């Protein structure tokens, strides 16, 4: 999805990445806020579509895809996992899209989706058992709003702070 939307919006589908780019002064405050609001609305719509396709029984079994800290882990474990996972993603995005590297390595713009996708894959392997892998606050918000159970909201702050 990032690769497909890169020419339109710069591939912004994650508020954590958008916020990082804002802090690096690569986005204005207005554009960053607009992107984050649209990312959240898109995630809510996407979660609604998933609920429609799944049907209530399957949707309830999978807890609506909501993120939460799994049994056997503390909120601190969940927060730590999300901080590290989100850092790995944002760091990889910055490294793979660095304008200084483009001048030196002409293949970088073409290959940028590969390290980003690989980072997302590795973060999922590491954090699915702990939090179900948030690393995208909009996705966590969309699932929480549509699922709308205490389970989805109890730990929700972790996915925005992390």
Keyphrases for this structure?
globular; 10 helices; Glycerol uptake facilitator protein; mainly alpha; channel activity; Aquaporin_transptr; 162 residues; 0% strand; transmembrane helix
Topology record:
Blueprint: H1 2-9, H2 15-23, H3 29-61, H4 75-96, H5 99-104, H6 108-111, H7 113-131, H8 137-147, H9 150-154, H10 156-161
Helix pairs in contact: 2-3, 2-4, 3-8, 4-7
Pfam families: MIP (PF00230)
Organism: Eperua falcata
Subcellular location: Membrane
Q: What report would you give on this structure?
A:
This protein is mainly alpha-helical and 162 residues long. The protein has ten helices and no strands. The chain has one domain: Glycerol uptake facilitator protein (Up-down Bundle). 76% of the residues lie in helices and 0% in strands. Belongs to the MIP/aquaporin (TC 1.A.8) family. One of its GO terms (molecular function) is channel activity. Keywords: Membrane, Transmembrane, Transmembrane helix, Transport.
